[in-house]
Design a protein that fits this description.
about 170 residues, disordered N terminus, alpha+beta, single chain, GMP Synthetase, Chain A, domain 3, 3 helices, elongated
């Protein structure tokens, strides 16, 4: 079934149309002590409008354990996951439109922090490595590349970021 939605519809101004959306997230943190000394927990919760609550924390690469919780999702991981999930969702939509039958999709995405062209620490590169299983006939390499290119072009997250995003 066709959703009727097309990626470039988002470019139309809000003016009473359903092509712009607001998204919410509630981030909550409470001190467990040690704040003034800088020895406070960075563990927090991320709550989303659909009801999901995810444990969050600073990255142990930035703030050492025990002040960071390695089990929590850090902002850097969330950014990489957002770029990967957005690409996957567009890929699946486009593959279905192309008549393909996707059985499974797995991406072991990786983000690299470093100094950007302004000298600021930033996520400078995100590499997506999707592995896709098709239930039916798989597309040829050129068709698969075109699907990934179009998914990247339509991905709202990729369109919002300055970092390089590469599909390998």
């Amino acid at each position: 079934m066709d959703s009727g939605f097309r990626g470039n519809d988002v470019e139309v101004a809000r003016e009473g149309r359903k092509d712009m959306s607001d998204y919410t997230a509630t981030i909550e943190w409470r001190s467990g002590g040690g704040f003034r000394e800088g020895r406070y927990s960075r563990a927090h919760s991320l709550s989303f409008d659909g009801g999901a609550v995810v444990p969050g924390s600073s990255s142990p690469h930035v703030v050492p354990v025990p002040m960071s919780d390695p089990a929590g999702v850090d902002p850097e991981e969330a950014l990489v996951a957002s770029a990967s999930a957005c690409h996957m969702l567009w890929f699946l939509h486009l593959a279905r439109d192309a008549g393909l039958d996707v059985a499974a999709y797995r991406d072991e995405a990786r983000g690299t922090m470093g100094r950007d062209d302004r000298g600021r620490m930033a996520m400078i590169r995100i590499v997506l490595r999707p592995a896709i299983e098709f239930a039916g006939e798989a597309p040829d390499a050129d068709s698969l590349q075109r699907l990934h290119h179009e998914a990247h072009e339509r991905c709202f997250i990729a369109n919002s970021l300055r970092t390089e995003i590469v599909v390998e």
